[in-house]
Structures are given as C-alpha cells and as structure tokens.
Fold this protein.
Amino acid sequence: MGETATPCPFCGAQDTDKRSDFGTSLMVSLHYCRRCRSYFEAIKWSERAEKLDLPAFLDQPRR
Ligand SMILES: [Zn+2]
C-alpha cells in the first residue's frame, strides 16, 4: 500500500515482492522477482542507515 516496488537487478521488472525485511545483513531486505523468479537483496537506505559511517569503515586498512 503505497510502497514502491524495488526493481529487479536482473531483468529490471518492478513486479517484485518483498519477502523479508532482512536479508543476509541488517542493511538489506530480501525481494522476489515474479518475472525471472529469482530472489535478490536490496540495500535499505533508511535514515538510520545513512548515519552509519560506511566510507570510514571501508577505508580501514586491510591486514
Ligand atoms: Zn527479475
């Protein structure tokens, strides 16, 4: 209801279904595409997520 569908990254269809609010991490939600029948994850950029300091986290030197 008023929720915009997340387009499928594989075929671009908007005929998708949100299956879960959480995928493999808290940052993503799990969706299902009815056209190509595949599951995909979409990153959620909520207000809370934007406050996370991701660039600094990713810039940490690898050991
Ligand atoms: Zn698809």
Observations:
- The pocket of zinc ion is lined by residues 8, 10-11, 13, 33, 35-36, 38 (CB under 6 Å).
- The longest strand covers residues 28-33.
- The chain has two helices and three strands.
